[in-house]
Amino acid sequence: MMRLSTLANGLRVATREMPSVETVSVGLFADIGSRHERTRENGLAHLFEHMVFKGAGGRSARAIAEAIEDVGGELNAATSRETTVFSARLLADDLALGTGIIADLVRLPHFDDEELQREKRVVLQELGEARDTPGDIIFDNLQSVAFPGQPLGRSILGDEASVGGLARADLLAWQRRYRPGGMMLVAAGKVDHDALVDLAAVRFGDLPHAEPTLPEPALFVGGISADPRRFEQAHLALGFDAPRALAPDYFAARLFAEAVGGGMSSRLFQSVREERGLAYSIYAALQAFDDAGLFYIYLATERREAAAAMALVREELAGAVTGLQSAELERARALVKAGLLMSLESTEGQASYVARQLALCGRLVEPAEVVAEIDAVTLEAARAAGAAMLAGPSARASVGAAEKALAA
To answer: What residues does the Peptidase M16 C-terminal domain cover (predicted)?
Structure first.
């Protein structure tokens, strides 16, 4: 059973009871991420997430870790382009502890200057590691040419100049963007809804109302990013404009992407890998944002085969627009539904699902409702969604490929 309550200040509290488990996952989901940053602040949302773990409330960094692990729990956080989440997984009796630590992280971080300088170096090392990993950095490169000059196109990690220029005052200003109307406290597992509401009232009930910081609207543009560094393989990514998360054709586009490259039976896997042996890793996916979307294909291949592999990818995409078959659609439908339902077998998956649907729709959405939308997609709708995505400009990113060969 799912339940939803709203505190007087606007903070929403939602629960999903799972009677068969003895644990609980609780998370504070905030509607603020890297696309809410100004240019000079790029990387601030991610740095904030790191810094709160360096000391908050009456605990040092070590004391935070010990407090959660003393009861066998786990504490985590993640920053995306649109959201930030702080979460804990614990035994059900320790819900108050987990909720209290999360509240301290967001509301009472220490932001020690010496820790800040140290953590900025850690973030830059993380950025360096990503740049040294072609299969990671290529997605930032693709995002940057899909949405050039826009907050949605910038890296979540920031860059040397932006991260290096961030100060304690920036962290404090960012903290004030965590407003009650833009946050949800969500728990799933062995949880009593009323008890969580009471905890939320104590920990967050006095947060004052604040107006939201609206991000710059996103516009897919497209273009080319070519990183000439030589690696053992060439890494390629191809992207297209796609429906936003609540668009009427979102699920049709999602199933088209799944059929084209979502599994070992997909067109791209069978054609590019199995029949031609041009790539070990190849897949397609659709990433949806509040006001935009990105349908993309990724593969890694030998440098000398990069042009042939990219040409075959484009050929298969074009063929799918008119040639997608009912059996392919049904297989994709089964994979998407199974992926959704399997994710809901864990407390973390349930909490994330509740938060995502609540953020998108403003209400609790039963999984059966999502399954019904997936089941309603027709072959004609999937083909039409694919045609619409492929009709516009494309974004292409490569790492380690000969750009002249790709452009030929």
So the answer is: 168-334
> If you ran DSSP here, which 8-state letter would residue 150 be given?
S
Burial class of residue 188 in the structure, from the number of CB atoms within 10 Å of its CB (0-12 exposed, 13-18 middle, 19+ buried)? buried
**Alpha carbons 32 and 54: distance in angstroms, whole number:** 21
Residues in Cβ contact with 339 at an 8 Å cutoff, skipping those fewer than 6 apart: none
Which residue out of 17, 22, 41, 49 is catalytically annotated?
A: 49
Question: How is residue 271 written in tokens?
Answer: 């054609």
Active site residue 366: no
Is residue 81 helix, strand or coil? coil
The average pLDDT across 287-303 equals 96
* Residue 230 pLDDT: 87
SS3 26: strand
Cα–Cα distance measured from residue 307 to residue 293, given in angstroms and rounded to the nearest whole number: 26
Joined tokens for residue 114: 């010496």
The Cα 400–Cα 14 span in angstroms is: 46
Cβ 26 vs Cβ 85: under 8 Å: no
| CB contact at 8 A, 45 and 32 | yes
- In terms of Cα–Cα distance, which of 135, 318, 331, 359 is closest to 235? 135
Chain-centre distance of CA 234, in angstroms?
A: 25
d(CA 260, CA 92): 42
